[in-house]
Amino acid sequence: MAACPACKEPLPSPPGTHCPHCGTALAAPHTPAPEQPGPSAPPSAPFTTTAPNDDTSPKTLTPQTVAYIGLICALAAGALGYRLLIKHHLQQSAALFIGLPTLIGVLIALTPRPKSITGTILKAMVLVLALSGPLFGEGFICVLFAAPLLLVVGLIVGLTVDGLAARRKKRAAKAGTLETLKRILPIPVLFAMSLEGTTPGLSFARHEAVRVSRIIPAPAHDVERALADAPRFTIAPTGILGIGFPIPLHGTGSDLAVGEKRIVHFSEGEGRPPGDLALAITERREGYVRFDALSDSSHLRHWLHWSGSEVQWQPASPDSTTVTWTIHYERGLDPAWYFGWAQRAVVTRCADYLITSCATPKP
Question: Which among 19, 114, 212, 283 could disulfide-bond with 351, CB atoms 3.0 to 4.6 Å apart, if both were Cys?
């Protein structure tokens, strides 16, 4: 109970302004100051539990991200494999054109499966072809000729893996080991096919010969005179020969006697420097001459190796001559079943072009 500060007598409750006993004025009782109005707080939201925004919490990789990582690793493995093939001089064998795309396809198939392995592998092959210039140093012609083969190999690998996955989904058979082996058979077959050209014992016959005959509207003696002159290449190659192959610019050497030489200077090709093809006459008789290759520093040796040429001419009429040009060469690329026909098509056009340029009398 409160007491008067002067007389110490107890004060009533509530105390007044003066002590009832001695009349001493009392201090006014303390009352808390009213709260000043402040900015109104937003209405409270219903109670919810939210996870803290912790940027350091571990994040899981999505299947798409893993697929991209697998694609990059597969392409890196392909680039490494290419360098190894170059080191061991196998860049013209089937190990490059079949084995390498098969390896890339299998590595992609081992990554977590996207919707379609086939689609992913084909995208990877297209990417390999697009990057083959800066990544592998290959030119347009190599890419053009190799593209169908790489895409077919990728398609076979992709369809094989997608077929196995579809069969697992259906759970077709309980004891399906034999069926599974049948389904994966294309992949080991592709790897076996990639061995072609890696050793002489695993190569098919490389010697090829292409023969083209045409009737020239000129007497036989004029055709012989044209063949005896120095080669002049005044007509630009067309068709498949005009897509980027090195083209003959000019030649030196004349006469058709045994021992005479011809030097044909070729342009650059696919960024490679120009070079020369040297030939010598090794056989001569009436209406016939044979040129054997001595050396070749042109970029053509990247695809094939010239052995020589045979030229025959005989009168078809008093004013026309039948000219037959045979080119002998060694196929430089494997597999033979794919590059054999492609090189024959190109060399056939070469023989036709040589008849026009070297055996047709100039006006």
Answer: 212
